[in-house]
Structures are given as C-alpha cells and as structure tokens.
Design goal:
single chain; about 250 residues; alpha/beta; Rossmann fold; six-stranded mixed β-sheet; 6 helices; binds glutamine
C-alpha cells in the first residue's frame, strides 16, 4: 500500500535529528512491501491534512518555533479534523508543545498553538534534560518507551487528558506530574527525542498500523527481527533507570 506522509516544517523543526523518525517509518514500511510517499511542508504552503495517512512534526528551539507557530496554529482545525478521521500523527518536543493550546517561552511571549492536544506549555527556568523511560499502554498493547528529553517547557495536561505514558525514570511533561506526552486517538505527542523511533520499534509499528488503517489497509504488520532495535532500547532504558526516578 502507499502510505501518504506529511512532514511539517522539516527545515525548522529537526533538533536531535528528529528527521530520523521518518527514516524509520520508511524502512519499516518498505520491509513489509509498503511504500511511503513523503510530502514536506514549509510555512505558507497549501496542504490538506486529511489527504495524509500520517503527519509528523519534530522538535526545535524557541526561535524556530516562533517562526512556524502562526502557520501551524492556522492549520489547527484541519489537523484536528484529520486526526478525528483516523490520520496518525506523531509530534516531538517543540512540535508537541505547539500542537497544544500554546507555549509561553522564556521571553514571556506566547506562541499560539494548533489546539489538537488538551494542554498548554510554559517555559521554566531550569531545563529538564536526560534519558527517560515510560510505561505505555496503547489500547492494550503494554510496552516501554525509551528516549531523551531536553526542554524548558512545562506541559500541563488538562484534567482527564490522556498522557502517552507514565514516567518510570526521567522528568516527563512537567517534572512533577509523573506523566509524559499526550494521546488523542491516533495522535501521539511526546518530549522524547533521540530520535525516538529507532529504539522504540513497537511504537513505530503502532503508528504505521494506524496509518495503514487510514490508507484502507489492515493495521496488522508482519513482525521484524528487531534485534538491534531491542538492544538499543535496552541500552537507553538502562541509562534512564540508572538515572533513577524523577
Ligand atoms: N524550545 C522548547 C523547550 O525548550 C522545545 C525544545 C526542543 O524541541 N528540544 O521547551
């Protein structure tokens, strides 16, 4: 099947090589006989989000976020509609912040958000940095997710909002709640960089499965050997565990 992917603002939001997540989608899809068609989006370009099976947005510094925030916010309604219709979405760090209601940066100015995730973000004085390990339940698929976080923003989920997971080690959304990321249907937002997906193949396949279902196929994917991926996950999880709890 052809999986249509929209990569939002790759020239602005690509901190810690977040673009590597796209390479993982591409490789894991190709190994199962599927094809990824990637469309990059720059500010001002036309795009119909529901015409895509998967939307991806990476992380960036406050400066880069400021440059794309108004453009992204203006697309908020269309992105919410696409996710409502089953388009899969992965947002990392800066992109995750801007898919909420907004982000108040260190200089006190507020960037508008796209309003997909029920949260808002306020920059704190101390950056939250280090390896992270999460316990995640994706509709009964219970797994761990490992990665690296580096953010000044404290993301406060609305009451009743679903996080991506529970923090086993690391800071998470705000350093105190014990939660990390946010989940709205087929959309996942997270602070985890690294990039995230090479060491978290279960999460990569869950997102690919949602995208395939949206494309009209089955969300079942043949298993891959994933020996290196599992080793990478174990190393990353071990680093987070040795760092200890929050
Ligand atoms: N600028 C944001 C923050 O510091 C996001 C940083 C990032 O994407 N790593 O909170």
């Amino acid at each position: 099947m052809k999986i249509r992917v929209a990569h939002l603002y790759p020239d602005y939001l690509n901190i810690y090589a977040d673009r590597g997540n796209i390479a993982v989608f591409e490789r894991r899809a190709t190994l199962r006989g599927h094809e990824l068609e990637i469309t990059s989006l720059a500010p001002g370009e036309r795009l119909e989000p529901s015409a895509f099976d998967l939307i991806y947005i990476g992380g960036g510094q406050d400066r880069e976020q400021t440059l794309i925030a108004p453009d992204l916010a203006a697309r908020g309604e269309a992105i919410c509609k696409a996710v409502d219709g089953g388009t899969a979405l992965l947002a990392v760090c800066g992109g995750y912040q801007l898919l909420g209601r907004g982000y108040r940066g260190r200089d006190g100015s507020t960037m508008p958000g796209a309003g997909l995730f029920p949260h808002e973000t306020i920059a704190g004085d101390k950056r939250l940095i280090g390896d992270v390990l999460l316990e995640v339940d994706l509709d009964g698929l219970v797994t761990t997710v490992a990665g690296f976080e580096n953010h000044a923003g404290r993301t406060l989920l609305d009451a009743g909002a679903a996080p991506l997971g529970r923090v086993v080690a690391g800071h998470g959304n705000d350093g105190t709640s014990g939660y990390e990321g946010c989940r709205v249907g087929t959309a996942i937002g997270t602070y985890l960089h690294g990039p995230l997906l090479p060491r978290n193949p279960v999460l990569a396949d869950w997102l690919l499965g949602q995208a395939l279902a949206h494309a009209g196929g089955s969300d079942e994917l043949e298993p891959l050997p994933d020996e290196l991926e599992r080793l990478a996950h174990a190393v990353s999880a071990g680093r987070a565990r040795s760092r200890g709890g929050r």
